[in-house]
Specification:
Oligomer: single chain
Strand order of the largest sheet: 1-2-5
Shape: elongated
Radius of gyration: 30 Å
Number of domains: 2
Order of helices and strands: HHHHHHHEEEEEE
Helix content: 25-40%
Number of strands: 6
Amino acid sequence: MRKRPIIILTLVAMMLFTLGQTVWAFKDVKNDVNEQKINELKKQGILSSNKADKFNPKGKLTYAEGVSLLVKGFELNIDNIRFIKEPKASDYFTNLKDNAWYSKAFIIANLNGLEIPKTVKANDIMTREQFAHHLFKAISKKGDYAYIEIYMMLKDEADVNKDYMNSIQKLLISKIVTLDGSNKFYPKKAITRSDAAGWLHDGIKFVKETAPIPNLPEQPTLNLKLTVAAVNSEINKVTVSTQVPHPGYSIRIASIGFEGDKAVIYVETILPDPDKMYPQVVTDVQVSTYVDAKLKPVLPQSASSSESSTGIIAE
């Protein structure tokens, strides 16, 4: 008798699980090559269905749909921009309405550098190369990523708009986009809603799983000064000094070049540790080396320095 409640609970759990899977699934994407990715995007709230709970995966993607997908998928916004007046779609695009469902997405896309054509119409069909280009620009907005230096060969390369080739190459290298069995991309062909969703899914995954190149601290402009002090009759101590923005910066002797009777002292900046915090106080730093007393220490002509730093200053 005790087994019956357990069986009932198991059946209920299975029904709830099945129902949950159905809620997040479109009715017309079964067996589509991007079925799983499409349903995952729906689950995340990026894709939505029509009243019949269908996605129309084989349908052609319009610019209004494509731009809206990219803006929503990558959570692009203009929150960091202050406007004198409220921006309108017609400020940037001659053929778009200001109060349409897609208007804000086009404004955001434009101000985030997705390079949407200024004369685009909402119902224009996106080609595969156009969506690839806008997708790559959206990815780039999320961070500066490193890509392997390799050129992917396309059998239909001659058909690709040269302005879009770099974007397509980067997407192929990162495996967000793939070629077909004949090594073709079909750049001028209209992109299907299924392929657009698949590329978008993998683009979002790439951003989540790939660490962008860290931003390096700003290289300060240094006013270098060079001083010389005799150690003995054969050796001189050469010191290069300057001021840096804060104690995190320093300098070091990178190398010494010899030009006739001159010893050219090359100095480079040591950048602060990005994981540390430093007081924002201008700081004096210096570094020293030793050269033959027969040579005249100088800084390179390209060095940012005061006039007196190109010669010897008595210490």
